[in-house]
Amino acid sequence: MRKSIRYMLALLLLATLLAGCNKEEPVVDQQAAVNTAVAATMMAQALAEATVNAAALTALPATATAEALAIPTATLVPEPTATIAAPTPVPVMPTAAPPTPTAGAPVEYTTLSEEELAALIDAAVAEAVAATEQTAQAVAYTTSDDAVTSEEVAAVYPYYDYAEYTIAYAEELMDVYYDLYGALADEMIDELVGVESELEELNSTLLLIATSLEEINTLLAQGLALTEESIAQLESAAQQAQAGALALQAQQQDMLAILQADQQHRAEQIAQIQPNQVPDDRVSAVLAGFQYVDLVSTATGDGTLTRDELLAIAQLGANAQAGAQAFVGLPMAGGATVDLTQLSSKFGEITGQLAHGQVPQATANAQGLEAMLGQRPDVAAGAGNLPGGIDLPDPGSVSGGANLPSGGNLPTGGNLPGGGNLPGRRP
Fold first, then answer.
1. Are residues 126 and 232 in the same domain?
2. Which of 86, 161, 279, 315 could form a disulfide bond with 285, CB atoms 3.0-4.6 angstroms apart?
3. What global pTM score does this model have?
4. Coil, strand or helix: which one is 149?
């Protein structure tokens, strides 16, 4: 500011000197003189204000001075960047060729526990999902260039055949489960009904693929050109199959967890059952054990188990266990030669196995219990009548103490109880 004022004063002084050097008498311009005086006055005022401001700034703290002199900075807003779309993947053929469906060894489903059978169903459904996805992938690759050849049609068929086979096998296993545990399970049956519905829908979609392939193959065999509509129908069927596979996978993912919850609910239900007819002597306690074994044999002899049968077994088991515990310390008498101390826990163990669908294990365990009971007491002699008027089998008609089936009478070879034959594998 001071340098500017000094510069202006120097200009005025130089102008005055130049004017004095002029030999001619200057013509005085009154208005110019007035303007010059006004300008000089304004300069003097500006100089005084600049001096005052400089003194004020010098008296402020350093931080305040910096803030006063700080030049505000503009906030830079970044330009929005364009989103680059991911490239559309190019369809490729599945890397692994599908297995060829072949007939396998017959499966004795009645030798499997409920959990083992459910695991087979879960694996079969997962395989059906994967096989369907591979079929859809093979179709997408075939139609990616908007042209289909006879060789490409022939390459797709094995994927379709295997997908159709896996669906049929999963449905076969579910039919077995319905027959063996349909009257025992609750939540698991509801889950399987939902899975079966998705399987049926998926199978219908695969049939659309097969129909389109057949039509295309017919046109190619006749030397005719394929229409855009025929290729579009095949693509649409493959897309439906892919969507159906995802829906089936979502329905199936909690299957085993639902089974465990179902089994836990059964176990909780039978745990609430209390004895209602406790044997009144040692022989009656032994006979109650035989009655329990007989009912287990009858209930599981056909390879099935119902909820009512489970509850009846649980009730007899509670009664027999109470009898064994009541007479555990008494001397052996009345022809009963069994040590009841070894029996009290067996009844609850076998009933728990049945509640968890472990029918083969429970059957074998019941056979062991029968052997521990020894010789059946002579009911005809009048000893050890059970309370409640329950009739025991005629000892003369029971061979060897009412032996449980050893397995020879159970359905074998993948046959459903009742005579409905199931193939071990669908060819």
1. yes
2. 279
3. 0.67
4. coil
Express each pLDDT in 283-328 by its tens digit.
Answer: 899 999 999 999 999 999 988 899 999 999 999 999 999 999 888 7
Number of structural domains the chain divides into: 3
pLDDT tens, residue by residue, 415-426 = 333 333 333 333
Same domain, 392 and 340: yes
Assigned domain for 85 exists = no
Contacts of 379 (CB under 8 A, 6+ apart): 287, 385, 392, 395
Is residue 414 a contact partner of residue 108, using CB atoms and an 8 Å limit?
yes
Kindly give, in sequence order, each residue whose CB lies less than 8 Å from that of residue 198, ignoring residues fewer than 6 positions away. Answer: 244, 247, 248, 251, 252
| CB environment 159-171: b (16+ within 10 A), e (fewer) | bbbbbbbbbbbbb
Does one domain contain both 115 and 254? yes
Within-domain flag for 103: no
**Structural domain range at position 349:** 273-397
CA angle 216, 219, 221 (to 5 degrees): 105
**CB–CB of 367/266 below 8 Å?**
no
Tokens of 331: 């001397």
CA distances (Å), origin 201, targets 22, 77, 134, 192, 234: 116, 54, 17, 14, 17
Distant-in-sequence, close-in-space partners of 271: CB < 8 Å, separation ≥ 6: none
Q: With contact defined as beta carbons under 8 Å apart, do 163 and 206 qualify?
A: yes
Going by C-alpha positions, the residue among 327, 253, 251 that lies closest to residue 289 is 327
List 415's β-bridge partners, or say none: 421
What is the CB-side half-sphere exposure of residue 402 using CA atoms within 13 A? 22
**Position of tokens 């007819």?**
277
For 8-66, the pLDDT digits (tens) are: 555 555 555 545 544 444 444 555 554 555 445 554 554 445 444 444 434 434 444 44
C-alpha to C-alpha distances, 368 to 289, 352, 374, nearest whole angstrom: 12, 16, 10
Q: Are residues 216 and 321 in the same domain?
A: no
